[in-house]
Write a structure and sequence with these properties.
- By secondary structure, the protein is an all-alpha fold.
- The chain has one domain.
- Helices cover about 85% and strands about 0% of the residues.
- The chain has seven helices and no strands.
């Protein structure tokens, strides 16, 4: 089995299980929240998809050299950032395809739930509500990704540096994790 096929199968299976968790959580959250909070969850999920897409683009556009230099100086998070850049194909696939696509799908599902809920509250046709919410989700997602792709390309090293620092910080709190993102 080729590496690409193995990666594709792994990503597909991972996506399946991540999607189950995200959809289950978001459906429970929206079902038990007031409409305004459900709308906030809806917007949050779209935002997460846009931000992860930007990180995926940044990973693909980042330069290895600055991260090598920072890692040689043992800067906090530099080794993690270097690993992100060295594995740009996987990072881009995970961030843009897995997380981004799951967020797009989940926002659509949440939009449908919101339509059903709003149809009882406001005196607007369910079809009009459905078209409006789907169009809003699409506009926010595509517009946000279009805006953030340029940022991801133009500020790739800064974004990956920040993500590397964040992941190194998280890793430092995990029992058995490496302190400061260093080996």
């Amino acid at each position: 089995m080729t590496k690409n096929l193995r990666t594709g199968i792994t990503m597909g299976i991972s996506t399946f299980f991540i999607a189950i968790l995200v959809v289950a959580f978001s459906r429970l959250a929206v079902a038990n929240l007031a409409s305004i909070y459900a709308a906030i969850v809806f917007l949050f999920i779209i935002t997460v998809g846009v931000v992860f897409d930007m990180i995926g683009v940044a990973a693909a556009a980042a330069d290895v050299a600055p991260f090598n230099a920072r890692a040689a100086r043992k800067d906090f998070g530099a080794k993690t950032g270097l690993q992100l850049v060295q594995n740009a194909d996987r990072v881009a696939t995970f961030c843009s395809d897995i997380v981004g696509d799951i967020c797009g799908t989940v926002s659509g599902a949440l939009g449908a739930l919101m339509v059903v809920r709003l149809a009882f509250i406001v005196d607007i046709s369910e079809a009009v509500l459905n078209i409006s919410i789907v169009a809003l989700a699409a506009a926010l997602t595509v517009g946000g990704k279009g805006f953030c792709k340029g940022i991801g390309i133009n500020r790739a090293n800064e974004i990956i540096g920040a993500v590397g620092n964040f992941l190194a910080l998280i890793q430092s709190f995990v029992p058995g994790g490496k302190k400061g993102g260093q080996s």
